[in-house]
Amino acid sequence: MGTFCSVIKFENLQELKRLCHWGPIIALSVIAICSTMAMIDSVLWYWPLHTTGGSVNFIMLINWTVMILYNYFNAMFVGPGFVPLGWKPEHSQDSMYLQYCKVCQAYKAPRSHHCRKCNRCVMKMDHHCPWINNCCGYQNHASFTLFLLLAPLGCIHAAFIFVMTMYTQLYNRLSFGWNTVKIDMSAARRDPLPVIPFGLAAFAATLFALGLALGTTIAVGMLFFIQMKIILRNKTSIESWIEEKAKDRIQYYQLDEVFVFPYDMGSRWKNFKQVFTWSGVPEGDGLEWPIREGCHQYSLTIEQLKQKADKRVRSVRYKVIEDYSGACCPLNKGIKTFFTSPCTEEPRIRLRKGEFILATRGLRYWLYGDKILDDSFIEGVSRIRGWFPRNCVEKCPCDTETDQAPEGEKKTR
Known about the structure:
The model is unreliable at about 1-10, about 375-380 and about 405-413 (pLDDT under 50). The protein is about 40% helix and about 10% strand. Helix 2 packs across helix 5 and helix 6 (about 235-255) packs across helix 8 (about 300-315). It has a 5-stranded antiparallel beta sheet with strand order 12-11-10-9-13. It has a two-stranded antiparallel ribbon with strand order 1-2. A two-stranded antiparallel ribbon has the order 3-4. It is an alpha+beta fold. It is globular. Among the domains are: about 10-80 and about 140-230; about 315-400, SH3 type barrels.
């Protein structure tokens, strides 16, 4: 009994903290509003106890809600799977092909990346999703993608119910004049009387829920198509970016080499089965992966090491000439800086006049880089990186001669 209580106290309750975040709060609120209003309006439009169609409609509506919540909570609480702390490759000589994570005190397994939000190396990391307050990766990629599919389908069904309810409830209450449209929201002309009165408040709530349903259908539907596109190529969002940077690196230095993505099985169906299985358990163990013929087990990690070395070469050293508080949208740094703040959860870093920073990529009014710290900082926390306004820094004289542009900016030749 004591062991059971300790499991509840230290594991389950710890995971429940994920709900205390703006992402899950908004997502679950949208699901609750659309589902509740759809059920209420179904009673008005298509009373489920009178006809078979009404019963099927109501059951399907409940079914959408259950499946959406099931996959949502699976994606949130099952999580992506993390690389074991202190992990090393089976053969010690293979460590030369891998990056080492100082935070996790382990080598980064192929396809894994360190997430600053989760503070762990995530297996087959796709991205950190604020809506589930967790990473999308190896273990929960299928659940997350199914949620992205089911949410728009459920919202389309709910939107149809909202439209039909408003139409049937207002059909006998509209009177058209020459210049105005008068709406009688009373139920006096309705025969028989509705089970639930459809007044002005119900009309406003239905209209609001319709807006949420349509917005969710468009936004989440687009995310689903993006996810399916990369799944059918057996990639993640990060790996798609790595592949683009590989092409840029080869073109930038005009190298006689071709980067071949090693995990594409050459068939969309085979790629699909790497994520979606009948058992619900994804293929592999999250540490080793099947590769296409002619590729090396560490082809991707070798390319990452090349890009990391290239980033150091192409980075630019800046000196801070003006203090910056680390605000997301600083008002005192100019209107253009305020309105062009990067739309990302990546951090901003505080700057003090006289500090130095190494910029690795940038936008027109913002730069991203690592603060150059002295040796007084302890190992493991000595790397501070994030976004900062361009007008707070100036390029160091030693780097002006090279005229290198931070990664992410096109170099004109």
